[in-house]
Amino acid sequence: MLSFIKEALTIGEGATGLLTGSTSAIKGVMDLVRKPNPDLSEIKALAAEAIDKLLEAKTAQMAMQDALLKLQDEQKKRDRFQAEAQRYVLTKTDMGGFVYALRPDQARGEQEHYLCTSCFEAEVKSMLQPVNFNTLGCTRCGEKVFKSDGRDNGARVARRGLSTRYDILNPYGDDD
After folding, report:
1. Same domain, yes or no: 52 and 132
2. Cα three-residue angle 69-124-150, rounded to 5 degrees
3. Residue 130 and residue 139: Cα distance in Å, rounded?
4. Which residues pair with 91 in a beta bridge?
5. Measured between alpha carbons, how far is 148 from 135 in angstroms, rounded to an integer?
């Protein structure tokens, strides 16, 4: 957004300079016309210069209006995101990752879901999707977050018989 502001200011400064130049040219035409024997070629040259500067100023004005419209659009996007962002809270998952979680009182009929922290900080709402066992991933930036998927499928270790050997059991409970 700062770049839009700088662009608008730069264009505005240029337009102001063009208007100042055209005003000087018009003043020069007026001074020549008031002389007893005005030089028509000089008047025509100054008038043409004034018209050129006014046309350039008009073009700069249109560019500045375009930059301001972009700035307004950007501000509207930011305002919409900020309003939407109020519905989420930064949360630590049960496995130590961080996500933005939908506040239960803000669900409005939506399912529980989580947003990517990196995208959220960039003011983009990107829902995390299951990509692997106990892992959510962002399809936009690729960030991965560990969160239990609700099944009891954490790594379990069992000791078999009198052996000191430990085996990792099948996380889905099928110990076949």
Report:
1. no
2. 160
3. 10
4. 99
5. 7
d(CA 131, CA 143): 11
Give a three-class secondary structure readout of 105-127. HHCCCCCCCEECHHHHHCCCCCE
- C-alpha span between 172 and 176 (Å, rounded): 11
pLDDT average, residue stretch 9-35: 75
Residue ending a domain, among 60, 85, 110, is: 85
Q: Are residues 32 and 103 in the same domain?
A: no
Higher per-residue confidence, 4 vs 66: 66
- Report the alpha-carbon distance of residue 111 to residue 105 in Å, rounded: 12
First CA to last CA distance, the chain: 60
Q: Return d(Cα 146, Cα 118) in angstroms, integer.
A: 15
Number of domains in the chain: 2
Q: Which of 121, 128, 162, 154 is nearest to 142 (CA)?
A: 128
- Give residue 65's identity as a one-letter amino acid code: Q
Q: Which domain holds residue 28?
A: 2-85
Judge whether residue 165 has pLDDT over 50.
no
